[in-house]
Amino acid sequence: MAPPAEVLAVRGLSKTFPGVRALDDVDLTLHAGEVHALIGENGAGKSTLIKLLTGVYRPDAGEITFQGEKVSFATPLDAQKAGISTIYQEVNLIPLLSVARNLFLGREPRNRFGVLDVARMNREAEEILAGYGVHVDVRRPLRTLGVGAQQMVALARAVATDARIVIMDEPTSSLEPREVETLFTVIRRLRDAGIAVVYVSHRLDELYAVCSTVTVLRDGRRVHHGKLADLDRLSLVSTMLGRDLGEVREEGLTKFTGEHHAADSEPVLDAAGLTVPHKLHDVSLSIRPGEVVGLGGLLGSGRTETAKAISGALPVRSGRVTVAGTPLRGGSAPAAIRAGISLLPEDRKSEGIVPGLSVRENIALAVLPRLSRFGLVSEAKVDSVVDTFMKRLRIKASSPHQKVGELSGGNQQKVLLARWLAMNPKVLLLDEPTRGIDVGAKAEVQKLVDELAADGLGVLLISSDLEELIEGSDRVVVLKDGAVVGELTGDDVTEDKLMRTIAGDSQPVAKEVASDG
Amino acid sequence: MAEATLRTAPLDRTRVLQWLQTYGVYAGVAALLVVNIAITPHFLSAENFRTQAVQVAPVIIVALGMALVIGTEGVDLSVGAVMALAASVTALYLGYGLLPALLVVALFAAAVGLANGALVALVGVQPIVATLALMVGGRGIALVLLPQLKDLRNPSLASLGSGDIAGVPYLILIAAVLALLVAFVVRRTTFGRQLLAIGDSRPAAQLAGLPVRRVLILVYIASALLAAVAGVLATARLQASDPTSLGNLMELSAITAVVVGGTPLTGGRVNIAGTVAGAVLIQLLTATLIKHDLPPSWTQIAQAIVIVAAVYAARGRGKR
Fold this sequence. Notes:
By secondary structure, chain A is an alpha/beta fold. Chain A is about 35% helix and about 25% strand. Chain A contains 18 helices and 22 strands.
């Protein structure tokens, strides 16, 4: 039997954005009937690669050969017409049109008078969707369907347009387990029909269930490619995170001093059974005063969602949060803040800073009502708070009146920390506190986290930087697919153990030791 | 030296634009004053200045509320309709005396503002759509309450419209006091700062625990109340309630004043002094053309040019 035909060959693809080498000399080959896993952490270059393949971006260097011909797609529509379909995390259909209209958009069946043949369109739509396990009235507007069913319509549409390659960008992020099964059936059918599938996901179980080959990207480069079966889970995780197993690491690369002496007191924060549909399943954790608890896991494992659920920014279906013995009511951000929970969000630029306002206004933003009487701001009190924290956190700005958007990332992060410290919180939730800030500021922020814990704050630390997570945390709770899968304590807080827990290795080292201590 | 000059050349361009955005509107007002003093007969008279100021006062008052709404990255299209509603309600309740009538007007306006604010803040409707509903419906209600123009003979209302203190008409004094009040609210109160933060980055404001919904609702109520004040004052000046045409296109005049005054439509910044100057600029421009017997269509073209210039100067600012 002849080997399956090569559908796509990408050679030396590179793309640079101002200040970032997003993709660096990446190769990728796809054969007919291949289901190819494309994986990598945040910023590894997955989205850039997909956008180059589908004509959203133009490559700076390298070439794309599609079905034996060199191609250069000017727009996503060109790529789609040529036979490369993409299904994004967010459904890109028209919510108000009927399901059938969405499915046939742009290629509606017409009768002999050239008029839309509605009856035939609806009949065919029903047949097609039945093949995807979707049984709905196809005349209903698309938006009345559940997200999972919408995703299936998008998939059916992508495949129906004579695609040779279907790219799926985290297609299961909003699907129920049953729908995931249907999706896999569809993917296998595509495979058998000779269509190549690129499958992007952070869920290891899914990758091993459906993919045959794999490409791992890290920092814009291809660091591994080959058969997925040749790469066990642990190696996959370590390749993705860029850590060698058993590698002896030099201690002290971060500014963390290590042990904190968490009082054996009652937890300052206790979160129990947090559940958010599609995102979190029964997540529980507690933090004692003076303790830094790390939250480990891959991208999409529910770390950010956990922090947001605790801080009231993400509504939970069930679960409860207790701060210093008092249950939190309302589950809203203001209520959580009043109770003493502060969240430093992951997306500093769009959810953290208020870019057009000054350093001073940004620091005073949350605490403003406490510095006011009858709604009138006391400028003297604001000045004193701003002055205290600018000095304490060594915030570098030309003046307190400089716009915060003009500061460096590290200083912006310090301004946000100052905003929360001014509230005198009990619990700090730090979501990627050092991402995208320079080395010096990073060390300062790490040192600060240590100091704050020493002052008796409970800290939850989320970091994709393993070194930072391991050295900064007293304990690490490990998440996978939105659920807690393990906890590392004491001497078990190591990169090795963390990666084993993430990979779901059979030996439950973490749990055993945890019960000792 | 030459090299340094070369390198700073593009920077100068942005500086010029920034200067224009901050001070352009004042420069425009000054230029129009100078031109008019030079070429327009009888321009430099107290009587003329009073007329111009009395005409522009309602626009300024409406624009103050509009500036607050635009500061939250919203817009309020219903202000003209609220003016008409204020005129109708004033006519209906004037029989009970001026003060009771004004209280009822305030209640109606607050209800309109509450409806706008609730649609925007609680339901999540886009401001332009939410306020469009009451822009159409508000004038409808006004006309149901009072189907046609009605002359109002009430001495207190008449004195409100034409009275003065030391030669300065009440209208101007009220507009000035309100402008100072709104500027104070923006600069010195928690409400003002929260409003700007919400306009600049709503997700950040929300995560920082700000009472986003309450602030948004209050902003729309403030806008409606200010529009109602303008409606009552305009009615008082006319000594007649005219729900059919009072406040027509006022929403556009107010938005123009705000934008020309250097408040970006993208929210997060409110320039009250600029807004007042923006209203004055448009007023002077219109007056200049009318006094030189140019047809009204020219006024519209001139306004369009001013708007385009303001938008050009504001280009590249606002949101990053």
